[in-house]
Amino acid sequence: MSHSRRERPEADSTAVLSALGNKYSAEILCAAGTPKSAQALSNDIEIPIATCYRRIEELVDAGLLTCEGRQLSEEGRRTNIYRRTLDEIEVDFSDERPQFSRKRRTEAKNRLQDQLKD
Fold first, then answer.
1. Could you tell me which Pfam families the record lists for this protein (predicted)?
2. Domains in the chain with CATH codes
């Protein structure tokens, strides 16, 4: 059975609000329009790598960021790469619990953006 994003349980609302409320989360989501490693995100936003990893974990747990796979780092280590799962999110506080409307990224948009970056 399919559920719209507005029908997610309260725990999801709490996780999303908590993740979005943390410093650097919005910047990470903006920077993760194309697949990037935690190190690349840390460098782009100019934040400590440990902070970046914490925010990435929170954003992944909230469903706002996803691990797209692994790639070799410049040092030859396998590292996860991340991309945001949405382009827009709207929060409605007029009900008993926050309600979310999300504009999900499509796979076609991801592929097109990946081709344009190369």
1. HTH_20
2. 5-117 (1.10.10.10)
